[in-house]
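cache lookup: miss for this entity combination. No prior model stored, computing from scratch. Input as submitted by user K.M.:
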Amino acid sequence: MSRPSSVKKERQSVLLEKLTQDPFLTDEELAEIFKVSVPTIRLDRLELGIPELRERIKNVAEKNYTKVKSLNSKEIVGELLDISLGVGGMSILETDDSMAFERTKIIRGHYIYSLAESLAIAVIDADVALVGVANIKYKTPVYSGNKLLAKAEVKKVRDNKYIVWVNISHKQVEVFRGKFILVSLEKDFYDSEK
Amino acid sequence: MSRPSSVKKERQSVLLEKLTQDPFLTDEELAEIFKVSVPTIRLDRLELGIPELRERIKNVAEKNYTKVKSLNSKEIVGELLDISLGVGGMSILETDDSMAFERTKIIRGHYIYSLAESLAIAVIDADVALVGVANIKYKTPVYSGNKLLAKAEVKKVRDNKYIVWVNISHKQVEVFRGKFILVSLEKDFYDSEK
């Protein structure tokens, strides 16, 4: 049998992993997962130097906006959690009634699309990037209040063309998947078109 | 040589056709097309009972919203020009700076996507329709101020599945093309999910 301190160590390492997979997990949800009390989770977070949910999201989002080249921060739909130009990134969107069909409370497709498209553009290492083609699939309805986590991966780069895969999940269930082909534009191009 | 009255008749019939193809054509543009004066065009419109641009768009849009089953009027991105449930429809969107990337004044993809998705849903003859899959292509950049005309055609219906093609053009040049596969939901489904 393992001693209490090693139990804690293991829990904290799994806790870190869980929060990487799903940054939306609240202390209450974590307590349930680990079958411990909420104060225990708070102590774990404190020892690991992880702020609480809101603070956590705010911190990382601010840090990530400065990295993006192809968009201004206010142009991004959702909040950036992580970004690595030319490689990939993560963003989140808390849905609400304003994004939903009135009758069904199902979130309208184009809000989910916008989250995915924003992230696909944000991860491109170029000043201006536009979507050329997108093949997308909505896998299951998203309801008002659902919290969405989007992950993007740059799969291929050739000349000024980029293939980016984006998947969006709610509570680790995939709700959307999309392949975006983006094109970066030379500064000359958009200056001359104005 | 044809007599003046038959010249006018022919011009008026072509004028009707032109306005069906591109309802955004102004009197000035029509005058240029027909190499006549703007007052001549106004007279033509008067005789044909066609109101001027703004009025024209407002009239048809209002008439069409009441036909749509799957969306509330405020849920539609763009203005509906024409709708025939289960068959097809047309809508328009006047783009502006609020929809554009700040740096380039290029309209962000998701606004164009939203116009197309809204129309694809609006033409479905069902109370609730959701997008399952979309394959879309942005063919050329759209700039702030461009007026977009979207046309949708229901290509196939099987059980609760619909295939809808949407194309969007600016001054009769295609800027976007998309194939949407939609699914209609039974009332039971969305009531039980709430």
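stored under new cache key. Residues 54 and 164 of chain A are 28 Å apart (CA to CA).
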